[in-house]
Amino acid sequence: MTETEAIGILLTSPEWFHPSYTIHPITYVLAAGYLAWDWWINTEEEEPDEWTPEGSAAAYSRGEISRDEHARRSAAAIEAGEEFRAALERVDGVGPSLSGPIRAEFPGEEFVRGATQEELAEVHGVGESKAAALKERFS
């Protein structure tokens, strides 16, 4: 038997294809599934529209819009309806008092400068001491 024949027999023998010697085809399927899952998990989600409560809050947190602009967009969201108001409250983490008519009428820092401590406490849902600190901060 020549060396070439021995290699041919070795390569065609069933023992060579034993699972301990080769990678099982299911391994490739599992690896492809893992890579697809990993890619799907690690892809970034698209940014929300800046005129929605989520997008406005995201733009404000990134510093792309001012507090007054965020308040104006929030006021527009308040006027849009109950569903939008609920989304705004969910994003900003504030109570229903913030989405009342006073906030829609006087958005942003202008309202804080002109409001009394009682109005600030009512609108922002905080106590008198926090309202006083807020008033002092923007005075």
End-to-end CA span: 100 Å
Report helical residue fraction. 55-70%
Total strands:
0
Task: Choose one word for the global shape.
Answer: rod-shaped
Q: Work out the radius of gyration.
A: 31 Å
Mean pLDDT: 69
**Helix-strand category:** mainly alpha
**Oligomeric category:** single chain
Q: Which segments are poorly predicted (pLDDT under 50) over 5 or more consecutive residues?
A: 93-107
Strand content: under 5%
Number of domains: 2
What about the largest sheet?
A: none
User: What is the N-to-C succession of helices and strands?
Assistant: HHHHHHHHH
- The helix tally amounts to 9
Can you give keywords for this protein?
2 domains, mainly alpha, 139 residues
What can you tell me about this protein's structure?
The structure is a single chain. By secondary structure, the protein is mainly α. It is 66% helix and 0% strand. The protein is built from nine helices and no strands. The protein is rod-shaped and about 105 Å long. About 11% of the residues have low confidence.
Can I get a quick summary?
This protein has 139 residues and is mainly alpha-helical.
Task: Please outline the helices and strands.
Blueprint: H1 3-12, H2 25-42, H3 53-61, H4 67-80, H5 82-92, H6 101-105, H7 108-114, H8 117-124, H9 128-137
